[in-house]
Amino acid sequence: MATQIESLGSEFDRKSALKAFDDSKSGVKGLVEAGVTKIPPIFLHPLHNATASVKSTTGETSPEPPVIPTVDLQGIDGDPDLRHQVIGQVRDACRRCGFFQVINHRIPSLLLDKIIQGVKDFHEQETEVRKGFYTRDFANKTVTYNCNFDFYQSPAANWRDTISCVTAPRPPNPQELPPACGEIMVDYSNQVMGLARKLFELVSAALGLDPNYLNNIGCSEGLMLLGHYYPACPEPDLTMGTSSHTDSSFLTVLLQDQIGGLQVFCDDKWVDVKPTTNALVINIGDMLQLISNDEFKSSQHRVLAKSIGPRVSVACFFRQQLHPENSRVYGPIKELISDGNPPVFRETTVKEFVDHYYAKGLNGISAVEQFRV
């Protein structure tokens, strides 16, 4: 693979290639529609080790890979003992690798199916219809569609297109939403907002705080929904669906279809997060790692490119967005700080944090490291 990339030589003008692809406004889906059998050089990832599903950094294969835990929310509102048990499960998962799945979350399975289908329908519209939403103006546009938010910053592009929409705290103007999926995006966001408040209650309690603590400081107020579309790739071993990264959110709620490909780096291994029918994947984001003072982990995760597809997923990121009025300052929670556990991060605003996250792109380095004291 490295040889293939090196063979491009100095004649390959990456900047011009990126601009030409971006100017087409047709995304990775456009390449598939054109019938490509070789991926363009801008998508080549030289050393991503994509075939290592469960390999450690030393190259040793684990006979029993770690399993991402599944947390059952059934009955926790009426049974204090069961709720206490679930809080313990959440605490263990957040400390270990920051990932778990939830079932019996009360979001109807029909709605889960509809949002996956809605995202798929958007990306499979005629190219000219999709182009009308193509933009990189993340600060001013409610709805954006493009290939890779960090297209010009990352060392290699990922085999993925995305439609995104800020749905809270200010609901989007219905006239700005895409007809193919706008209504279901709003309906699904409303359901996920309710679930997130319950999840933040469990995470608050898992930190030893009042259950309302994280909700009261605004962690569940802002929501950005991303509908990812990963077309089947003709050379999946040469690229990535999404390269290794952490999320900038407080919390992320992810719905994935049944194709698979999501992996988290846990216990020094890349571990598959296997699709479970009607389950939602929950993971800790950088902002929660920061305010928990490293108690809970925002782990590296990635998505492998596949020869089958399309793979569709819907990620809901809970944090405030890039608005100048977002001046609220976040730092390690005072109740978690002591002489024996001093703050390891400095205070920051969400805007400062997200500006840094967007500027660096998905380069495999957690954004939270920039804010360590």
TrEMBL record:
InterPro entries per the UniProt record, alphabetical: DIOX_N (IPR026992), IPNS-like_FE2OG_OXY (IPR044861), IPNS-like_sf (IPR027443), Oxoglu/Fe-dep_dioxygenase_dom (IPR005123)
The UniProt record lists the keyword Nucleus: no
Gene Ontology molecular function, alphabetical: dioxygenase activity; metal ion binding
Superkingdom, natural source: Eukaryota
PROSITE patterns referenced in this protein's UniProt entry, alphabetically: FE2OG_OXY
Boundaries of every Fe2OG dioxygenase domain copy: 219-322
Cofactor: Fe cation
Record field: transmembrane: none
Keywords: Iron, Metal-binding, Oxidoreductase
Family: Belongs to the iron/ascorbate-dependent oxidoreductase family.
PANTHER family reported for this sequence: FE2OG DIOXYGENASE DOMAIN-CONTAINING PROTEIN (PTHR10209:SF123), OXIDOREDUCTASE, 2OG-FE II OXYGENASE FAMILY PROTEIN (PTHR10209)
Protein name from the UniProt record: Fe2OG dioxygenase domain-containing protein
Organism of origin: Linum trigynum
